[in-house]
Amino acid sequence: MYLSTSILSVEEKNPVRIFYNLEEAKTDYFHIDVMDGQFVEKDTNKQMLEYCGIIKQISNLPLDIHFMVNEVKKYIDEYAKFEPDIVTFHYESCKSDEEVMELIKCIKENNIKPGLSIKPNTEVEKIYKFLPYIHLVLIMTVEPGKGGQALIPETLTKIKQMKEHINKENLDTYIEADGGINLETVKDVTNAGADIIVVGSAITKSEKPKEIIQKLKRF
Q1: Which of 64, 69, 78, 184 could bridge to 36 as Cys pair (CB 3.0-4.6 Å)?
Q2: Nearest Cα residue to 118 out of 130, 107, 127, 108
Q3: Which is the catalytic residue, given 28, 33, 36, 64?
């Protein structure tokens, strides 16, 4: 299991020290939540651009970027300069299957691994056809757009369904889970089949982030 630490709730007054601490604490990825104020209510683009710039100057850890935006292509172009490892966009942002495939192709052309995300109410079957072409599927375990929400229990069934399908089809696609994951919920999420967990405030709001990361990784 891999751990991707969301920096959404990192305070602006001293991000450099926090990013250093997260790297020392052995997070596997920095998870970058990019929101446009349209697909979701919050707009984090300016802050995330700034944070990506800082991270690329001080760290070699991979960036795991999650676009919660309407105009996905525009944001791919904007963030490609940071050479992220993974860029994930929402199925719900697209008007057609053709658009989904075009965006997957665009991400790959930038030498980035593509990911596709679904909201809690979207059926997993809707994205089965795209799994052979993507690196990971991100299953939202809360409604996208806000940090600190409680995990929606029904989303665990979606992770299990997705894992069963991936195994049945012998695919190499990873499952990432994002939202409400902490020491109380992480076991349920990993048991359901998640390969990568996204954890935000449970780590960044803790006085002992290294200890939390070590405990999370035991699952």
Answers
A1: 69
A2: 127
A3: 33
Contacts of 183-191 with C-beta under 8 Å, sequence gap 24+, read 183/212, 183/215, 183/216, 185/151, 186/216, 186/219, 187/219, 188/151, 188/156, 189/141, 189/151, 189/156, 189/159, 190/1, 190/219
Q: 45-58 vs 72-79: helix axis angle to the nearest 10?
A: 30
pLDDT confidence band for 28 (50 / 70 / 90): very high
Q: Domain span at residue 171?
A: 2-217
Instruction: Report the number of distinct structural domains present in the chain.
Output: 1
Distance of CA 105 to the CA centre of its chain: 19
User: Which residue shows structure tokens 């450099």?
Assistant: 16
Of the residues 28, 36, 64, 178, only one is catalytic, namely: 178
Please say if the pLDDT value at position 197 is more than 90.
yes
Does residue 178 have an active-site annotation?
yes
Output phi, psi for 22, to 5 deg.
Answer: -65, -40
pLDDT band at 193 (very low <50, low <70, confident <90, very high): very high
DSSP 127-139: GGGGGGG-SEEEE
CATH number (domain holding residue 200): 3.20.20.70
Q: Is the pTM of this model over 0.85?
A: yes
Q: Is 33 one of the annotated active-site residues of the chain?
A: yes
